[in-house]
Amino acid sequence: MKYWEKILNDIKEKAMNEDLWLSLGEGALKIIAIFILSGIFIKVGKVMIENVFKVRTRSPLRVSERREATLLKLLQNILTYVVYFIAFMMILSTLTIDVSAMLAGAGIVGLAVGFGAQNLVRDIITGFFIIFEDQFSVGDFVRIGQFEGTVEEIGLRTTKIKTWTGELHILPNGNITEVTNFSLYNSMAVVDLSISYESDIKKAETVISELLQEMPAKYEDIIKTPEILGVQNLAASDVVLRIAAETLPMKHFVVARLLRKELKEWLDQNGIEIPYPRMVMYSRQDEVTSKKAWGNELE
């Protein structure tokens, strides 16, 4: 009983100790202030980074917009990590934990973690080279393995790709071995146009060329006048002409649809027929009637 009474008395003494409550209150206020200041510093720092890149847009020595967007996201991420690390160290110091001893042992711990987290190290190294070599940037349309979409974010550890249907794929950088980038160079829109065998091919090519001359002025996504490459195929019921148009990166799908619409309307105006499936109806009753009539004549 004396033992438990002693413990209860110690608890009461500590609970009644004003200095203890003052130190706890002061520590809690410091921790709250650290969280608030860290959040403010991160927001202000991100705005400053954005303003720096806005100023660079007026500089004659600016880099490409793709690379600027990538570096902007990366620097904002690094700022967040650094501020959170410093805030964590300050909170530990507020809690009277010896931070210097922890930092001294961080080298040995980091070495041990490095051996155990080889995939993490590989992700970071690969992410660094993706950014350094400008393999792809934020906003590019890429294919990585089985995933194809727009790059939303590139970090030192992961890359985020958003497909056209809205799914967001997060890929570890260490798993990125092959990349197809569709946004670096102009695209090519290819349209196959069918005309009937009865149509005059030479006339059709002349009429189509007249329309194609007007397309670059009509649609800004088309870089230069589309070309008729010639007869692509002789099908069962139609002659297939192939048309190619150079477009801005990743605009070939849109341009191809516009070309098909314009070509259909233009050919209709010029009386050139686009073949379509036809069905011939055969009536067996008519055949029986014809045979009876033919038999009566023989008699």
UniProtKB/TrEMBL annotation:
List all membrane-crossing ranges: 31-53, 74-95, 101-121
Cross-referenced SUPFAM superfamilies: Mechanosensitive channel protein MscS (YggB), C-terminal domain, Mechanosensitive channel protein MscS (YggB), transmembrane region, Sm-like ribonucleoproteins
Q: Is the Membrane keyword given for this protein? A: yes
Q: Which InterPro entries does this one have?
A: LSM_dom_sf, MS_channel_1st, MS_channel_C, MscS_beta-dom_sf, MscS_channel_2nd, MscS_channel_C_sf, MscS_channel_TM-2, YbiO_bact
Every Mechanosensitive ion channel MscS C-terminal domain range: 190-274
- Where in or outside the cell is it found? Cell membrane
Q: Which UniProt keywords apply?
A: Cell membrane, Membrane, Transmembrane, Transmembrane helix
Instruction: Name all Mechanosensitive ion channel MscS domain ranges.
Output: 119-183
Q: Taxonomically, which superkingdom?
A: Bacteria
Q: How does the protein's chain sit in the membrane according to the entry?
A: Multi-pass membrane protein
The Mechanosensitive ion channel transmembrane helices 2/3 domain, residue ranges:
77-118
Q: What protein family is recorded?
A: Belongs to the MscS (TC 1.A.23) family.
Q: Please give the name of this protein.
A: Mechanosensitive ion channel family protein
**Species this chain originates from:** Robertmurraya beringensis
